[in-house]
Amino acid sequence: MTFVPNTLSLNDHALDGEAQRHAIECLLNCYLREYALPRNEADLNYQAQDVPMSLRQAGARCISISLPGGRLVVRIDSASLLGRCHYIGAPYFKGNQQGWRPLEARELASLLCTPLSGAGRVGEMLQQFANSLQITRAFLRHSRPANEAADSLLASEQHQLWGHALHPTPKSREGISHNDLLACSPEVGACFQLHWFKIDPALFRHQGEDPRSTLQQLSGRDDAYPCHPWEVARILADPLVQRAQQQGLIEYLGPLGQAMFPTSSVRTLYHPQLAYFMKFSMHVRLTNCVRKNAWYELDSAVALTHLLRPVMSELAIRQPDFLLMPEPAASSLDLGALGTLEQAREVTECFGIVYRENLSMADRGAYQPQVAMALFTWDLQGRSVCRHQVRRYADITGLGIEQATLNWLDAYAAKMLGGVLHCLFRQGVALEPHLQNTVVGFAQDGLPNRVWIRDLEGTKLVPEIWPAERLSALDERTRNSVYYSAQKAWQRVAYCALVNNLGEAIFHLANGSDALEQQLWTRTGELLHEQCAFLGHPQQLRELCAGAPFPGKENFMTRLMMRADREAGYTQLPSPLAFIAKSKCA
């Protein structure tokens, strides 16, 4: 296992300050969007004179948030139409009958979370918040510059230091030691060997394509099976595995074979020469979820790939620059003969691997793909990464930066929305096109010209279009895991595509310009109207185009209330399309 030490000149104090600032920004933006703004407890353009002296600068823009025990004020330099702010100073709090005082990140977290939940839930949330902050600091100290020229996809997978901009604990990873964290995390450019077990061939199970040639390519053996380094301790402690070892069916070999690179999801690993990405089980909570491959998800990934083949073929004709990344294989070990069904399923999940088709070397060379989350974020100097792509396009074409930005967004949004909405309204397939699931390819001039959506775990089917008889090959538990109601499917697709994805894209492309942001949302509205007409004016899309609220997923409240991600609620966000329409009429 290797990682490259940080070569930046910033000192530890400055890095700690950056970690604090981003933790505060994530937390405040979550709280604003999910709680304060819907309850009219926030003012995004606070004009009162009662602010700390350090915020009374000419032209300073502040926001104010009312809290049960006082008021919070923070300086910002921009606020989007979706209420997403960029903060440029510490938050100040004034309690009842008290003066103003600045807050550090953990004190802010306690102030916001404590009134909303019980002590146990708040304690867990604050622990995860502190964990995320500590890990961000470690990543900043050990980060390294991305080498896009060598492999643009890998560089973008391993260049996401900040993570989900609207999650309260974007870098939390529970129960991982500091050394193991650095050894296996993409944010520090990690590259490591898998841990392997010599197995009796009778234990091996796979669905779909046979992945054993890939395992042999990695290990150099034909009798070995791998797991992620963070899962090996759990496996070795399992009573069924210990029983299998005693009977000579399994032998732990330790780390060996070719090294692999962790991607932005942490547990999905990449090697440029392999046919597949490999998605491993890890009983580690990352952000909201424990990232294991449940036994029924091993079934559903391969089943969905089979079921969606006709959809992929239709997309190739109707949306040729929009592609899904199939998951044609899954594998694990079956120790059912040594214990109960429940015990055997635990082992199956620990050893479970989902195999996702890799992008071909030809496509990686032609399109220089990058993960969208690595584009619509800040670099270490506080600059929006996507602006580099836009400037390149502007320089090549001779366009002004504003027109280049509009063209760039138009090219990206048309492909992403065209494919996602076609799948939902024509095929009853709800993709999950959030930033980490979206891969963008580029033309020679830097304009987006291809979009891939990945990770079938988040892909669901609408039962009205996919009744049970179409899924008769799946058992009931697996079938239920791939269903969303029509309403839930729309909420998840609209949130992922418009809020998580395009909301962040427009925020970063606008670069603090209110006028440019409105132009970008205007063009997005035009694209949505075009898609609505093309798809026969489905009701939900028609209402959205008319100014209905956008659904905003409640990442903050979901984590605070310890809900499963599948059960996340949604906040209604005032539509930027309605705001622009109202502005034009005024």
From TrEMBL:
Domain Aerobactin siderophore biosynthesis IucA/IucC-like C-terminal, chain residue ranges per copy: 408-567
Aerobactin siderophore biosynthesis IucA/IucC N-terminal domain boundaries: 153-376
Gene3D superfamilies, per the entry: 1.10.510.40, AcsD, thumb domain, helical bundle, AscD, thumb domain, four stranded beta-sheet
Pfam family, one: FhuF
Assigned protein family: Belongs to the IucA/IucC family.
Protein name per Swiss-Prot or TrEMBL: IucA/IucC family protein
